[in-house]
């Protein structure tokens, strides 16, 4: 069995490692060049599901490198008002294998994670290969075609090519992302001694912090390791600590031409909407790296309904793209990679028929993806209503209130 993966991102690379561990031939086709011209400028939180997938799919050396590069940040999320007074602490718990487990998040820069995932795969990644289309062939296999005029025959096609997946557009054209009506401005500031002195210690441990004002907007703050210069090769990149901030509000409350704003104009816009907020939050915005500030209109997949399975399937953002509000996108892609590895391994060992195994994968994936996408969508919507804390992990929410005299609205 030969599996072709379109896309060398987090999910696709993890799947490739898992398949190789099980003796399955795999090739990754990546549209970008081997040395990307721009590094990812932010970090990532790996949750329990992501950690399990990496541990089971990666070779021992890669897993050890991940453990050395990442750091434990616990499972808490904190909520503050605009004057930096702590309102609530959410304990990190998740359902897993029928049990409620304590969330144990790890933080790592996306650059370091990318390097760890690529290690050992370079001989099976074909770079500069832009997927165009596929067709089923007589022997039950699949022929895939590329923009350079080449084509290859494989047995299984996995679209891991992101939110604008070309594989999905051909295979499931009726599944399209929709505009959530929420937008954000994303920025980061290098953690200097001056900035360290201004911010609460809770902001410096890597856990997520949310500023929940009485106005219909939201500010996310967390510390991540990331490359100082995103325009150098990964091997040469200096990695340092950054405070990442994300200002969130309804799209119709922003100027129509916000995507044309300069970084300085974006900073001014955010600060103009935070006039009554704590001065130290203004200082954070002012000290931001002007090369890494950008607006983003949030989009999401709809609720996924069953489709007829075949030797073509999808994982990660290609099938369940979600808002970044819960930080679950990459972790869900890793979860997909482990599950699909297990299903294809059962085919390779003769225990299961191919399409049945893929159907089982898709059925299980849809179940957890629909739940996570729904939570992510509601979190984005709750971020732009008055004075509310979003129902993250609604069924398993554990909030310790710091001021019982205050009441907080929970929207379901």
UniProtKB/TrEMBL annotation:
Query: Domain FAD-binding: where?
Result: 288-373
Q: Which UniProt keywords apply?
A: FAD, Flavoprotein, Monooxygenase, Oxidoreductase
What are the protein's GO molecular function terms? FAD binding; monooxygenase activity
Q: Which residues cross the membrane?
A: none
Lineage, top-rank taxon, reads Bacteria
- InterPro entries associated with the record: FAD-bd, FAD/NAD-bd_sf
The entry's protein name is: FAD-dependent monooxygenase
The protein's organism comes out as: Photorhabdus hindustanensis
* Lineage, top ranks: Bacteria, Pseudomonadati, Pseudomonadota, Gammaproteobacteria, Enterobacterales
């Amino acid at each position: 069995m030969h599996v072709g993966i379109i896309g060398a991102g987090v999910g696709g690379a993890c799947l490739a490692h898992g398949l190789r561990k099980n003796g399955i031939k795999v090739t990754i086709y990546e549209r970008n060049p081997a040395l990307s011209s721009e590094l990812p400028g932010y970090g990532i939180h790996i949750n329990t599901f992501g950690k399990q997938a990496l541990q089971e799919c990666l070779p021992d050396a890669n897993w050890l490198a991940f453990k050395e590069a990442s750091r434990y940040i616990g499972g808490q999320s904190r909520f503050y008002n605009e004057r930096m007074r702590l309102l609530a602490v959410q304990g990190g718990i998740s359902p897993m294998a029928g049990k409620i487990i304590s969330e144990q998040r790890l933080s790592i820069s996306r650059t370091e994670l990318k390097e760890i995932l690529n290690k050992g795969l370079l001989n099976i990644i074909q770079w500069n290969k832009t997927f165009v289309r596929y067709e089923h062939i007589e022997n039950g296999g699949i022929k895939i075609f590329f923009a350079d005029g080449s084509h290859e025959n494989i047995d299984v096609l996995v679209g891991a090519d992101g939110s604008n997946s070309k594989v999905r557009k051909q295979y499931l054209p009726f599944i399209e992302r929709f505009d959530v009506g929420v937008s954000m401005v994303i920025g980061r500031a290098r953690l200097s001694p001056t900035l360290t002195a201004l911010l609460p210690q809770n902001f410096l441990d890597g856990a997520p912090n949310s500023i929940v004002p009485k106005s219909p907007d939201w500010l996310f703050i967390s510390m991540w390791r990331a490359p100082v210069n995103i325009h150098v090769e990964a091997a040469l990149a200096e990695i340092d600590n950054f405070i990442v901030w994300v200002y969130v509000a309804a799209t119709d409350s922003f100027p129509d031409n916000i995507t044309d704003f300069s970084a300085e104009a974006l900073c001014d816009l955010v600060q103009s909407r935070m006039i009554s907020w704590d001065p130290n939050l203004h200082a954070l915005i002012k000290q931001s790296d002007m090369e890494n500030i950008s607006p983003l209109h949030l989009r999401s997949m709809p609720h996924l309904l069953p489709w007829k399975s075949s030797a073509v399937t999808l994982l990660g953002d290609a099938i369940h793209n979600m808002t970044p509000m819960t930080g679950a996108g990459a972790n869900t892609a890793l979860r997909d990679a482990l599950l699909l590895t297990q299903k294809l391994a059962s085919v390779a060992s003769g225990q299961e028929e191919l399409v049945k195994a893929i159907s089982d994968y898709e059925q299980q994936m849809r179940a957890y993806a629909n739940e996570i996408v729904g939570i992510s969508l509601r979190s984005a919507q709750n971020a732009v209503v008055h004075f509310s804390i979003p129902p993250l992990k609604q069924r398993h929410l554990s909030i310790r209130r710091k001021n019982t005299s205050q009441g907080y609205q929970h929207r379901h």
